[in-house]
Specification:
This protein is an all-beta fold. The chain is 0% helix and 40% strand. The strands form four sheets. Strands 1, 12, 13, 14, 15 and 18 form a six-stranded antiparallel beta sheet that branches. The chain has a six-stranded mixed beta sheet with strand order 4-11-10-6-7-22, with no helix packed on it. A hairpin with a 5-residue loop joins β6 and β7 (118-121).
Length: 307
Amino acid sequence: MNTALRITAFTAALAAAFGLALGVGHATGTGPAKPGPAAAHAGHDPAGEAAADRLPGGLQVSERGYTLSLDRPFVTAGSPTDLRFRILGADGKPVTAYQQQHEKELHLIVAPRDLSTFQHLHPVLAADGTWSAPTAVPAAGEYRVFADFTPAGASEGLTLGADLHAAGDLRPAPLPDTGRTATVDGYTVTLGGDLTPGRSSHLTLDVSKDGAPVTDLQPYLGAYGHLVALRAGDLAYLHVHPDTTTPGPGIGFTTTAPSGGGYRLFLDFRHQGTVRTAAFTVTADGSAAPAPAATTATQEPTVGHQH
C-alpha cells in the first residue's frame, strides 16, 4: 500500500480521526502463535513516516506498471455477486504470482463513498490470474474497491483502487457523528490519542468486555489488530498493523495523517475465535468528532469479513 498516511500500532479500518460508530464483523479461523512487529507492505511503513513524494494508496487504478481491472464494475445492491478482477502487469498480462503479506497474497477492501459500510475480503486466485470473491453490497451507490498486494519479486507492495457501481435506491448519508467509545458484540473499544495533520501521532485502542480489560486477544492475519483508514472525500486508503506485540488490552499505533479533514477508522480484532470490527469517525486536527446527544451511538455500519 503506497500512502502518505502512516499508522503503526492500533487496529481497524480506513479514515483518520476518532469517535464512535460501531461496526461489527464476524469471522473465524486460526492465527499464528504470536505476531511480531509490523512489517512494511503496500501503503504501510512501521516507522509511521509519510512518503512525501507519493500519493496515498488507492487513489489510482494504475501505478508502477500495474493496473486493477474489474471484470464487471456494475452490480445490483443487495444481490449476491462474484466480484472478479485481475491485476495486469506492464505487458497487459495478468499477474499470477504474489508475495504473501500478513498471511494472504492479496487483501481486498470494499467501501462506499459515504464510508457507511466496510468489507475486508480475501479472494481466491485462479491459475489464469483472475481473483474472485463472493460478496454483496448492502445499498445502492458508488463504491471503491481496493486491492492491497505485493507482486512476486517486488521490493514493496502497493494499493490500487477502482470504482464499483451499485444500482438501486440511493440514499446517501453524511459521516456518522461518533465519540471515542465503540460497542461491538458486548466488547467496548476505547480510542485514545489525536491525529494532527503532518505530524506523527500516537493512537491507542483499549478493548474490554463486561467492564474488564481483555488481555488475551488472538492473532489475526499475523497481528493482534488491523486498522484500515479511509479519508473522506477521496477515500485515500491505508491498511496498517500495530507494533504492539502483547495480546491487549491496549493496541498502539504511530501515524501521520497526510492532511486535515474527516476519516473513518475500521479496527479488526480477534477474541475467542471471532473477528470483530469497531468503527470510528475522526477528524485530523487534534480533536475528536462530537458524540451524539445520546450516550452511545445506536447506528452500526455494516462490516464484513471473508477468509
